[in-house]
Amino acid sequence: MRQNEYFIDENTDTNNSDDINNIFDNYQERDEKGENMNHRSTILRDVARNAAIGLGFGSFFYLLVEAIAPNWVPITPLSIITLFIMSALIGELTFLLGNERIAGYIAHCVLTFALVIVWILMNGWSFSHITGGLPTVALVFIAIYGAIWAISIAHNKLDARKINEKLTAQR
């Protein structure tokens, strides 16, 4: 007979916003041996989180490009829906290929660029209609790709600093 147990880690401070964000991570269904029974929900949560991060970056940079160069990429319902799909897929690629090996980063960059090209073609845009054509698309891609990685690296360093400060404070 299986006994289910729900718990929140006793170190969780529900008055601290950082800990509130982590409550779901600590709130897991476990069997009597203490093993996590929510493996599928953890995977689904990771998929949803990665897709949402990709969506956030994709939407932000789509609007930024539109603000800098109005009508460079036409805004239509199809372009928005396909942008959401492309951005979510890029978020998943980041999770799958972000293994801190150069081959993973190269594969991520190439596949991300391929998704951008597919996005452009799915929307019926030809490179001749885009100012500067494919070279301009490639340069804009490189600039946006570099900016996203710079933001991600800065965010990861900030997270690492916060974690190290908490660990130091607990000693």
What can you tell me about this protein's structure?
Helix content is 70%, strand content 4%. The protein is built from five helices and two strands. Strands 1-2 form a two-stranded antiparallel sheet.
List the defining traits of the structure above.
disordered N terminus; 4% strand; 2 domains; two-stranded antiparallel ribbon; mainly alpha
Strand order of the largest sheet: 1-2
The SSE order reads EHEHHHH
Give the strand content.
under 5%
Number of domains: 2
- Average pLDDT, to the nearest integer? 77
For the CA atoms, what is the radius of gyration?
21 Å
Distance between the termini: 40 Å
Question: Topology of this protein?
Answer:
Layout: E1 5-7, H1 17-26, E2 28-30, H2 39-68, H3 77-97, H4 102-122, H5 133-170
Antiparallel strand pairs: 1-2
Helix pairs in contact: 2-3, 3-4
Quick overview:
The protein has helices spanning 17-26, 39-68, 77-97, 102-122, 133-170, and strands at residues 5-7, 28-30. The chain has 171 residues and is mostly helical. The protein has a two-stranded antiparallel sheet with strand order 1-2.
